[in-house]
Design brief:
388 residues; alpha+beta; five-stranded mixed beta sheet; three-stranded antiparallel beta sheet; globular; binds protoporphyrin IX containing FE
């Protein structure tokens, strides 16, 4: 069984037997939909400031955290969120369609003469990073560095970063990334252009320019929060449709089904399977007493497979009402990039279906290789065979 399937079996077991579990490395682990929805709604009891709480002070981490709204509580959270929301207005995102189509077409042109390739390398990895670098106004030639920094930020989604990893990999990468963004910020403050970096660089909070740390957090998050996640959506859509030929045939016949099919892909294969919170006071979750200052791990991937919310939850059903899935979080931290991720997913899948009459995962080339699904549900490698 692939590790990702073991994770889903474990979700089923925990939902059925122990929907709230204490004592593991993830603190209080919560699986049921209703309990998790309550945790995400109650930001007073369940704080997002886990990085500050659980890590030793570290200059680079603390500097990044100043502007990392995912790990910031109100009232500061609202102010940081306003800065990014000005960039990700629904209108701004809708205007990106043409750019995304252009990038997708260029990437697929590069493998046009091949009948097998790695979908991660060819499309799923470069598409979101190219689009966001373009939106921010950063040169795509810097992509090799973006890869390193993206991995470092990926390590931060665990509440605690192991000391040696922080010292030897994450810290130096955050330092390099911070200096890079600050160089661009200073440049845009002196020579503003028509790009998002210029708008972020010149944004203010309560009339004050953002501090260096806030700038690094806000730009770093904008750059990387949507990378592995959108890459995952593109890949898992292809994997699930390969496994469900009847659903694929329906979509090919009626492309209006694509948006809901992608929501169902996300429900079943949420790129972030879990979130992290910390209790600010003694509380109760699903009848269990939980002390103050406890790490709480809401497994949103399990909540999306809770039969009390989604009947027959392990069945892939592209017609399902997926409303209320927790893939993008819920409440004040709801993902700011959701419209962009959805748009990229739609364009990528539609263009793959336009270009190829058949796309299948290629077991002869080794099949799918996954990242650690407890961290992120995302293929590292996805060999496909295609026919026109
Ligand atoms: C399928 C793709 C994506 C998934 C599954 C996803 C998932 C999430 C989740 C679960 C959260 C909430 C975290 C929490 O409550 O602790 C979040 C927040 C966020 N996401 Fe996404 N995301 C995706 C794409 C993007 C993209 C494309 C961007 C931007 C380019 C983005 C930017 C953000 C930001 C800025 C936040 C912080 C919001 C806040 O704390 O107020 N995400 N995302």
């Amino acid at each position: 069984m692939q590790p990702v399937d073991s994770l889903f079996s474990w979700f089923r077991e925990m939902l059925d037997t122990k929907p709230v579990s204490h004592g593991g490395a993830h603190g209080v682990e919560v699986f049921g939909y209703a309990d998790i929805a309550r945790i995400l709604a109650d930001t007073k009891t369940f704080s997002s400031e886990t990085a500050r709480k659980f890590n030793e002070p570290h200059f680079e981490l603390d500097r990044f955290d100043e502007g990392n709204l995912v790990t910031t509580d109100p009232p500061r959270h609202r102010k940081l969120r306003t800065v990014i929301s000005q960039v990700f207005t629904p209108r701004a995102v809708a205007n990106l369609s043409e750019r995304i189509e252009r990038v997708t077409a260029t990437l697929l042109d590069q493998v046009a003469d091949r009948d097998s390739f790695d979908l991660v390398e060819a499309l799923a990895f470069p598409l979101p990073i190219t689009v966001i670098a373009d939106v921010l106004g950063l040169p795509i030639e810097d992509e090799p560095m973006f890869r390193v920094w993206g991995d470092a930020i990926g390590a931060l989604d665990a509440a605690t970063v192991p000391a040696d990893l922080l010292e030897n990999e994450v810290g130096p990468a955050l330092h390099e990334m911070g200096e890079y963004f600050l160089r661009h910020v200073r440049d845009r403050r002196e020579n503003p252009r028509d790009d998002v970096m210029s708008r972020l660089a010149n944004a203010t909070i309560d009339g004050e320019p953002l501090t260096d740390g806030e700038m690094i957090g806000v730009t770093g998050l904008t750059m990387f929060a949507g990378h592995a996640t959108t890459m995952s959506l593109i890949c898992t859509a292809v994997i699930l449709l390969d496994r469900h030929p009847e659903a694929l045939a329906e979509i090919r016949a009626d492309r209006e089904l694509v948006p809901n099919a992608l929501e169902e892909v996300l429900r079943m294969y949420p790129p972030f399977p879990r979130l992290v919170r910390v209790t600010t006071t003694e509380t109760e979750i699903g009848g269990h007493r939980v002390a103050a200052d406890q790490l709480v791990t809401p497994w949103i991937g399990a909540a999306n497979r809770d039969a009390a919310k989604f009947p027959d939850p392990d069945r892939f059903d592209i017609h399902r009402n997926t409303g209320g899935h927790l893939v993008f979080g819920q409440g004040i931290h709801f993902c700011l990039g959701a419209p962009l991720a959805r748009l990229e997913g739609r364009i990528a899948l539609n263009m793959l279906l336009d270009r190829y009459s058949k796309i299948s995962v290629d077991p002869a080339a080794g099949g799918v290789e996954w990242e650690n699904p407890h961290q992120i549900i995302c293929p590292r490698r996805l060999p496909v065979r295609v026919s026109r």
